[in-house]
Amino acid sequence: MSNSTAPDQKPEQSGKQAPIPVVPRARISAARVLVVGDVMLDRYWFGNVDRISPEAPVPVVHVQKKEDRLGGAANVARNAAALGAQAGLLCVVGHDEPGERVVELLGESKVAAYLERDPELLTTIKLRVLSRQQQLLRVDFENSPTHEVLRACLARFGDLLPQHDVILMSDYAKGGLTHVTQMIADAKRAGKPVLVDPKGDDWDRYRGATLITPNRAELREVVGQWKSEEDLHERVAKLRSELEFDALLLTRSEEGMTLFTDNRVVHTQADAREVYDVSGAGDTVIATVATMLGAGVPLIDSIVYANRAAGIVVGKLGTATVDYNELFA
Fold this sequence. Notes:
By secondary structure, the protein is an alpha/beta fold. The protein is built from ten helices and 14 strands. Strands 1-14-13-12-11-10-9-2-5-6 form a ten-stranded mixed β-sheet, sandwiched between helices. It has a four-stranded mixed β-sheet with strand order 4-3-7-8. A hairpin with a 6-residue loop joins strand 3 and strand 4 (59-72). The longest helix has 15 residues, at 229-243. It is globular. The chain starts with 11 loop residues before the first strand and ends with a helix. Residues 1-20 are annotated as: Disordered. It comes from Caballeronia arationis.
């Protein structure tokens, strides 16, 4: 791979509030996106705090409302479906109440569910307790899927490949992407672009991906702390060359996002109108890019739509989505 972008080249700047062309709804509805990865159920308990417990110096929450939302790879698929794409989800869930709830929510979100059920797996739950829109506590329930069900997932992946235009790997380090290296290789052989939302410091397992979308902390864990933009460009160029990534999209929170390709480095300023909750924003970014690629939009333009979608979703509480009308309002 040739990394022809000079390390000291200044990135192109994309306007913060520049108008974006409308992609016809019919093109987006024709996009077929397969999301593969770790699924979880985001469970929210809302209540009031009027006193401190007599048993310990902790607040007592009088829970008055409960809400379940799709999390992890399921939230990514939900985001693609909300935009209007044909979204499929390949994942492993348990034979338990949270697993059934995930199935129910996927149906409501119009996501095609390709689920492998593992009787020994506890479907991952992230329970958040909130009062007056402030999170007081999070409790996680999780374990890892078995080898047998993961092999079945890999076999099913091969069957689903011809039916989709874009493959999206959503890694939350819960074990669902144990065979991600082989999946990427199979998808590339089939001529499908592969997008990866990474986790951890072993990115060799994502070798050959079309696009990888780390945030600052995730990239820093792999390439180390950069001292300047020039240093960052050098480290990213080296990483892309070594691991054969066609492109890398660095999401930088309030600083926007930067796309690194062979020929260009393009920076898009943050488009947030009001930052309320950043949880799930990365899911929205990669789902939007995948949807736009599936609709035939070039990668360089897909980033602009993803930036706009992220700016909308951070103004909502918890893992949320952006629909077609919101994106092109």
